[in-house]
Amino acid sequence: MKKEDVPQDMSALGKVTKEVCYATDRSGKYVTELSKGWDIKITALDTAWQDIEKRIAAAKEKIVNNEASPLLFFMEKGLMDINILAGYTGFWKWQIKRHLTPKGFKKLTDKKLKRYAEVFDITPAELKNMNGHEQ
Amino acid sequence: MGMSNDFKHIQAAHCETGVTTNLLRGIGIDKMTEPLAFGIGSGLFFAYIPLLKINNGPAIAFRTLPGHIFSKTCDSLGVNIVRKKFRSKEDAQKALDKSLTDGYAVGCQVGVYYLPYFPKQYRFHFNAHNLIVYGKEADKYLISDPIMETVTTLTTYELERVRFAKGALAPKGQLYYPVKKHIVNDETIKDAIKTGIKRNVFSMLTFPGFISGLHGIKYTGNRIKKWRDKLGLEKAGLYLAQLVRMQEEIGTGGGGFRYMYAAFLQEANAYHNNGQLLQASETFTNAGDLWRTAAVQAAGIYKGRLGSQADFNVMGDYLLEIAEVEKYAFEILSKIKWH
Q: Which residue of A118, B123, B240, B333 sits 20 to 30 Å from the alpha carbon of B201, by its own alpha carbon?
């Protein structure tokens, strides 16, 4: 890639920091050039996020239909799966599976709710009623 | 507690090569550059792991396992390494504080999910990020993250949280830094370049199997042609977006590290003065350009502009072509008579 071809499409990262790219100058020698981002990359990331949004929407629907607990919503929103959530909370996977059901979730003690809430950076009350996270 | 002696932050394209470069420069190896660290550390790679899924998509790597580049670079230069993992968060912090007090700048493996200075869109559960802690002032750790333009800080809690990120490749508080045992001069670097290239020829060209190296690129190309039928257009698009994101990671200029390797070979030529290195360098530039062209084709598909089987065939064929170009480049390197 030639230095002048290094893409400069503003990305979310570009607003925080430019990226170093290796590209060739007129004589063919490699030099570094800063890039604000690349459209191809931005849309790849957008595609990944659209998929995440879909998963979150599906989680919400399950909760409304009483097929899952609010935990599923926050797990999807936090880009987590049961493995990652088990790692952060210290719960066993079978426990989390139980907490993901409306019935199991209702039985959670305040102490356990707090462990989940901390991982999601929210309060236990927010975890319970999903307030402020509807959008 | 102060700062490690005059640590200098230099921005880099990629985290681990950047950390390696800045740590080695910190112990007086002034000639270390990012492309040299990448090449000496034999960082160029490709692997497609069929059964493993990351973020619900395919697991594709364009560089070696985390920690590998740092170890191999230090090893080739004859530099000792201190590397520690921890069970307890308290021990991890104590060990870090002790190394800082002893005057070392310290590399840390971290997860990016809770990394506060990263834009939210980039904060996935990716645990193979690397940064340098070069000092501590009150409750703030001084942080040099090589992909950022400037240095930053993290609170004790923030740093602990990213050092103990959970999930695949969990860092477990891992810290590492180089300790010099003898003088590294031009001759040492020259030898290390040779070792690095030979090792990379082995991992990409010689190493058997079908999922890694050049075989892996070919294999992926052939798989992509089947994705449309097997996965359906939407999921196939997601898979291609994941391929592009892995190829890009952060700061590889679209060429999946091929440009950085081409830059390394030019620098290698300054030490070895061998035209074959320049010839291979140009070939890797072509490979990088082809990776970029392939990414544009992939984007056509995940943006919904393209989508026929013919479009997937074109995409797959790009990878087959790339495999041929890179094979040619590695064959040039494998034939070099070293002095």
A: B240
Burial B211-227 (b: 16+ CB within 10 A, else e): ebbbbbbbbbbebbbeb
* % of chain A with per-residue pLDDT over 90: 87
CB within 8 A of B83, min separation 6: which ones? B67, B71, B174, B175, B176
Partner residue opposite B253 with nearest CB, options A1, A17, A80 = A1
| A–B CB contacts, 8 A cutoff, strictly below | 120
pLDDT, position B255 = 74
CATH topology of domain A41-129: 434 Repressor (Amino-terminal Domain) (1.10.260)
pLDDT, one tens digit per residue, over B14-49 is: 999 999 999 999 999 999 999 999 999 999 999 998
Which chain A residues touch B121 with a CB distance below 8 Å?
12-13, 45, 49
Q: What is the pLDDT of residue B49?
A: 86
Q: In this predicted model, which residue has the larger pLDDT, B142 or B208?
A: B142
Amino acid at B207: F
Q: Shortest Cα distance from A60 to chain B (angstroms)? A: 19
* Residues in B touching A14 (Cβ below 8 Å): none
* ipTM for the assembly: 0.92
What average pLDDT does chain B have? 93
Which pLDDT value is given to residue A2? 94
Residues 6+ apart with CB under 8 A from A36: A7, A8, A9, A10, A11, A14, A18
Whole-number Cα distances in Å, B266 to A24, A34, B74, B273, B295: 11, 20, 21, 10, 25
Domain ranges for chain A, please list them. Answer: 3-37, 41-129
What domains can you pick out in chain B, each with its CATH number?
15-32+79-180 (3.90.70.10), 186-334 (no CATH)
Distance CA B327, CA B133 (A): 39
The pLDDT score that the predictor gives to residue A132 is 47
CB contact under 8 A, A22 and B250: no
| Confidence (pTM) | 0.93
